[in-house]
Amino acid sequence: MANKILLEVVTPDKLLLSKEVDVVVATGVDGEFGVLHGHVPFLASLAIGEMRFKDGNDTEYAAIAGGFAEVTGEKVTILAEAAELAREIDIDRAQRARERAQQRVEKSRAEEMDYARAEASMQRAIMRLKVAGRTGGLG
């Protein structure tokens, strides 16, 4: 595992990913952070956002719906409320979810319903669509 770091992405339902990679970049509540092998240990709260990881010349993306990241010098563990790899996101389903979420946001504003839940739903749907369309490098 020379110069590689083990990335594990875990949701309440399953182990989504366990892979040795060169670099991990995730979205914390305080901003984006990157991790290489030998990184100083830390714990971070994750926002609804994109995670990407690179193994050689291959970069992959995932949509992360909040949670925590635990970083050691040898391993990054993502404990996510929900997570999907970009290649597994059904774009049509994600677009329908975004439309439903938009309707809930508009309805919650008009009827003073639970706006925060509706907005979080909308953010998750938008992130899934963004990640589903990703290809290319870490930039």
TrEMBL record:
Topology in membrane: Peripheral membrane protein
Alphabetized InterPro entries for the sequence: ATP_F1_dsu/esu_C_sf, ATP_synth_F1_dsu/esu, ATP_synth_F1_dsu/esu_N, ATP_synth_F1_esu_C, ATPsynth_dsu/esu_N
SUPFAM superfamilies: Epsilon subunit of F1F0-ATP synthase C-terminal domain, Epsilon subunit of F1F0-ATP synthase N-terminal domain
Taxonomy, superkingdom: Bacteria
Keyword Hydrolase in record: no
Gene3D superfamilies named among the record's database cross-references: ATP synthase delta/epsilon subunit, C-terminal domain (1.20.5.440), F0F1 ATP synthase delta/epsilon subunit, N-terminal (2.60.15.10)
Primary location group: membrane
Role: Produces ATP from ADP in the presence of a proton gradient across the membrane.
Listed NCBIfam families: ATP_synt_epsi, PRK00571.1-3, PRK13446.1
Protein name per Swiss-Prot or TrEMBL: ATP synthase epsilon chain
Organism field: Desulfoferula mesophila
Lineage of the species this protein comes from: Bacteria, Pseudomonadati, Thermodesulfobacteriota, Desulfarculia, Desulfarculales
